[in-house]
Amino acid sequence: MFRTEVGWMNSKESIFHRLYDEYHQDVFQFLIYLVKNRSVAEDLSHEVYVRVLKSYDRFRGNSSEKTWLFSIAKNVAIDHFRKMAVRDRHHFNAFEWENEQLISSEKSPEQFLELSEDLRGLLHALELCTGDQKMVIVMRFFQELSVQETAQVLGWTEGKVKTTQHRAIHALRARLNKEQKEANSL
Known about the structure:
Order of helices and strands: HHHHHHH
Helix content: over 70%
Structural class: mainly alpha
């Protein structure tokens, strides 16, 4: 029996290392775009892999490992924003990430100094989107997940992803046009 347990642990450890090696950078980038703080993103990334290690034996393969990891990362990020909201309010009011804005006061991942003015404007406008919209835009365009993968990560239909993406792009366009008009009028 001891050999079986050791073999299982070695197998689980090798699976964990493979997942980490293959997807760590994508998961980290996803988290850093959401929280815009490198050390927080590192901590959250660590939490993702702790959850992976604890729950891999329950992974049934209903989605790809990549979408499963992004689902965990999404949940870790939501938990982080909920904890932040609770801390900020000193009491618990239901945090509805779908409708709330996920705004971090930290600089963007590339530290705005290195970004083009257009990308800075886009990231700023993205901060003003709802949680749903921000998640979809980051997954679809920054992490280059397909509509199907994004739907699996979020537990949505592909139609809801497409609708949310359409609305997010429309909102981003409107915000960017408004900012451009304001800049031109100065």
